[in-house]
What we know:
Layout: H1 2-80, H2 83-94, E1 98-115, E2 131-153, E3 157-160, E4 171-175, E5 181-189, E6 196-199, E7 209-210, E8 221-228, E9 232-251, E10 258-267, E11 279-282, E12 286-294, E13 302-306, H3 307-317
Parallel strand pairs: 7-12
Antiparallel strand pairs: 1-2, 1-4, 2-3, 3-6, 4-5, 5-6, 8-9, 8-11, 9-10, 10-13, 11-12, 12-13
Amino acid sequence: xxxxxxxxxLAALLVLLATVAGLLWEHEQTVRLAASVESLQQSVxxxxxxxxxxxxxASTTAAATAANIAELSRRQNVExxxxxxxxxxxxxxxxxxxxxxxxxxxxxxxxxxxENPFGNDPFFQGFGVQVPVYRQVGTxxxxxxxxxxxxxxxxxxxxxxxxxxxxxxxxxSVLLASGKQESGTVVWRSPTEDLAVVKxxxxxxxxxxxGNSSTVKLGESVFAVGNALGQYNNSVSVGVxxxxxRTITANDAATGQAxxxxxxxxxxxxxxxxxxxxxxxxxxxxxxxxxxxxxxGSQNIGFSLPIAEVKAVLASLGI
Length: 319
């Protein structure tokens, strides 16, 4: 009997041990499964993050590619644009800001009469000898000179050559591209360079863009705009930059004075009497120089002051 009871307890103990071992194994498997699930979740999260990064990179690449394609298309359009079109566009942009400057001055008004040079001497009467005698009977205002300038500020500031507006006793009229005429006041004359600044009343004027004369290159296409021969407003002559940093001696035909100019730009664009003070312009429609002189008796040799000098002057004047 006692042996039978002991066997029962042993059997029960074995069942209990088997149950506990099963529970421990099940717990271990549950822990392993949970760890696997967590690892799987982390992998899924990393995969999702990787996919998001790939999508962002793809969208960024697509945007960059689209921008590159647009830039290449723009460059191709610029390259295929003909030289004539560039020139025509630049001329159209510039000419509204180019003006003619007319110098006027009071001069003696003379009256001519014919008289016997021997007066009332009876011995020389009746020979019919008469000579003209001029007498002043007042004054009249006449045009004595003409040149060119270009508007650099919308409130009416104009750059020109000093030899276009040399006389402090003269009056100056400015003829705009629109045909309107304004009275001009000389606000500054350079003591050393052939530059001057003129002011006209009003605001809202078309202006010319000022370029960078330090980047001008030999052979670069340029054109000059001005009042050619003092008669033909907004005449355009085309050429190239044929020399840089030239030093010349310019003679003013009106005053007979000579002036040495340094660092000037040489061009074969025609610069005629009357378009002095006008702009030398590149194909981007930017003024890179101020036309100042030409070599008398030669063809296609003209000179322009670098626009950098104009920029420095405007800055110093606070304009």
